[in-house]
Amino acid sequence: MIESEAIVVGGGPAGSTCAWKLNLNGICTIVLDKKRFPRLKVCAGWITPKVVRDLRLNIEEYPYSFLTFDRLNFHIFGKRFSVRTRQHSIRRYEFDQWLLKRANVPVKEHAVKDIRKEAGYYIIDDTFRCKYLVGAGGANCPVYRTFFRKAAPRNKKRLITAIEEEFRYDYQDANCYLWFFDRKLLGYSWYLPKGNGYLNVGIGGRFFAIKNRGETIRGHWNYFIKKLDALSLVKNHSFSPRGYNYYLRQTAKTDQKDNSFIIGDAAGLATLDMGEGIGPAVESGILCANAITSGRLYSLKSVTRYSYSFFNIIFPWWK
Ligand SMILES: Cc1cc2nc3c(=O)[nH]c(=O)nc-3n(C[C@H](O)[C@H](O)[C@H](O)COP(=O)(O)OP(=O)(O)OC[C@H]3O[C@@H](n4cnc5c(N)ncnc54)[C@H](O)[C@@H]3O)c2cc1C
């Protein structure tokens, strides 16, 4: 049996941030992830200045692809306007590996299947034992499934389906573009340049709103890539996108049960307007580590709900 005071299941931004903080706070921690890092993660890879601050990330020293945008170009119901802001793009393939390495804790390649609680300890697949268990395994996290699903069922209306592709591309336009509600999609598509000659394009929206109209996200994607071609943003590329479903911010009642916790996508925390989950993953990872260290109650109340508050003012029905 491998013993550790804390075990974090999942080494994405939620898990690696939590492990980083736990380790800094002197709690012996290991991370289990079913994938070997660096691993592909379906994500646009857009991060906010708050993420940079929360992670104490020194941009000058970050060794991988990193771009900063001072403006975002929105298209909403066909109307174009640009907003002065500061946002960044990273590549998840590099970023997640860098964060996990920085956490400076042992990482084991292991797909968690079975978890049980015995005499106050959590036993994972009869192989690992810990006092504190953190579920950071994304939307299908086994810790959520085992201890939280019944008490905190997810609101299916907040399920997002999204597909994207990141590829090397000699892009001529280095701006970031976002198209909302194209063909009545309850969601948006994006064109997001990355450093070192990469580009990420993708589209996402509310799963059931799309399904109930007899549509698929693939259908919207096919329209979108024709549009990229027509706008000369991406020409002559043979696409093979990948998809993932995850949840927008839930009104969860239970994020801690005894000494088990859920953070990031496992807790369903992506922002209600833009579906950004990296920031909330990082914030919840820090809150969880602090709760474990201090013994105080873990609460997700302070985690960012909206990427853009003006969005909620313009579209108050967007809940
Ligand atoms: C197409 C798309 C685009 C997106 N774009 C953005 C964006 O631009 N900006 C943004 O902020 N958010 C974006 N998001 C959301 C963001 O990707 C997630 O919210 C974020 O990755 C959540 O981080 P996490 O650490 O909770 O989970 P994840 O990053 O999903 O990490 C979970 C980890 O758990 C591991 N795991 C899963 N099951 C097991 C198991 N049984 N045993 C062991 N390990 C396991 C996985 O291998 C994985 O490494 C996007 C999502 C999608 C689908």
Strand content: 25-35%
CATH class of the largest domain: Alpha Beta
Structural class: alpha/beta
Fraction of residues in helices?
A: 25-40%
Structure description:
It is a single chain. The longest helix is centred in the last third of the chain and has 17 residues. This protein folds into two domains: 197 residues, FAD/NAD(P)-binding domain (3-Layer(bba) Sandwich), CATH 3.50.50.60; 89 residues, D-Amino Acid Oxidase, subunit A, domain 2 (D-Amino Acid Oxidase, Chain A, domain 2), CATH 3.30.9. α1 runs parallel beside α3 and α1 packs parallel to α7. Helix content is 25%, strand content 31%. It is built from eight helices and 16 strands. The strands form two sheets. Strands 1, 2, 6, 7, 8, 9, 15 and 16 form an eight-stranded mixed beta sheet that branches. The protein has an eight-stranded mixed beta sheet with strand order 3-5-4-11-12-13-10-14. Bound molecules: flavin-adenine dinucleotide. Flavin-adenine dinucleotide (FAD) binds next to α1, β2, β10, β13 and β14.
What is the fold's blueprint, element by element?
Elements (H helix, E strand, L loop, with lengths): L1 E8 L3 H12 L4 E5 L12 E2 L1 H6 L11 E11 L2 E12 L1 H12 L3 E3 L5 E4 L2 E4 L3 E8 L6 H7 L10 E10 L8 E4 L6 E7 L4 E9 H6 L4 H14 L11 E6 L8 E2 L2 E3 L15 H17 L14 H6 L5
Parallel strand pairs: 1-2, 1-9, 2-6, 4-11, 9-16
Antiparallel strand pairs: 3-5, 4-5, 7-8, 8-9, 10-13, 10-14, 11-12, 12-13, 15-16
The structure holds flavin-adenine dinucleotide.
